[in-house]
Amino acid sequence: MFYGDFKNKDDLSFLNSCLERLKSIFGSVAYGDNNIIIGRNCSYLQDAKLLAAIKRHATNEQERSLIFRLNTLIWAFDHALRIDGDIVECGVWKGFLFSVLADYFDFGQVPKQMWLYDTYAGIPARYDTEKHDHPVLREENLYEKVVLRFRRYENVHVVRGMLPEILRERSPRRIALLHLDLNSSKAEIETLDALFDRLSPGGMIVFDDYGWSGYREQHDAEKRWAETRGYRILEMTTGQGVLLKR
Ligand SMILES: C[S@@+](CC[C@H](N)C(=O)[O-])C[C@H]1O[C@@H](n2cnc3c(N)ncnc32)[C@H](O)[C@@H]1O
Questions:
Q1: Contact call for residues 181 and 91 (beta carbons, < 8 A)
Q2: Can you give the CATH number for the domain in which 57 is found?
Q3: Ligand 1, closest atom to CA 183?
Q4: Structurally, how many domains does the chain consist of?
Q5: pLDDT by residue (tens digit) across 70-104?
Q6: Residues with CB under 6 A from ligand 1
Q7: What spacing in Å lies between the alpha carbon of 47 and ligand 1's midpoint?
Q8: Stated pTM of the model
Q9: Three-state SS for 208?
Q10: Ligand 1 centroid to residue 23 C-alpha, Å
């Protein structure tokens, strides 16, 4: 799946013919989620456990194409299992990414808690700094559906509320992994301010949108935020950013 402005009716067939041509030139070409990757192992694309987890949770092509981002998250999650603190996602929507992660790591058996924060009703107006709110984020009974999705895990907390305010009511003391996916620079910066001191040394932040050109304001604000604390965020070709706390 590719995101783009496919306004001409032959745009998709043009893209597909380009991909076929690249395969004939380079042999090994992997693609999806706006990545075109030439001559790499991409061994995660053959990870049977990951493919099975995605198959159980994905409901469409867009979700299946998130395997490239899931590869980063699995690496970060695996690392976080050895670090003091809990797992936190800010910006959950339907819970796709973290349902795959919870399944992959059999999270019910993991001696940590997982905290899944969202309004479950879209981006609040006062935080919609870059106008990324969309009706699709306000699905009917979304909160109840996400609670149902994670019901088999006693150690997963699906928390409904506005970030960062809700953190004052319910939040973990220590964090090993923070996934930020709010599509709002204001909400992400304020959430970073609220949670960074709780991130353990060796803990990580994965920024979902850091490298995507459509989210440039988030990148710039987060880069500045990190620099004032003496950190550099790794911008990845998947569009994610990664920060490792010292
Ligand atoms: C891109 S979606 C998250 C996608 C999700 N990580 C996944 O696995 O598909 C962004 C989410 O952030 C939530 N959000 C944005 N600003 C928020 C805020 N200030 N407080 C709580 N939730 C917020 C929206 O409701 C939306 O569900």
A1: yes
A2: 3.40.50.150
A3: 10
A4: 2
A5: 999 999 999 999 999 999 999 999 999 999 999 99
A6: 91-94, 96-97, 118-119, 122-124, 127, 137, 162-163, 181-184, 187
A7: 28
A8: 0.97
A9: coil
A10: 36
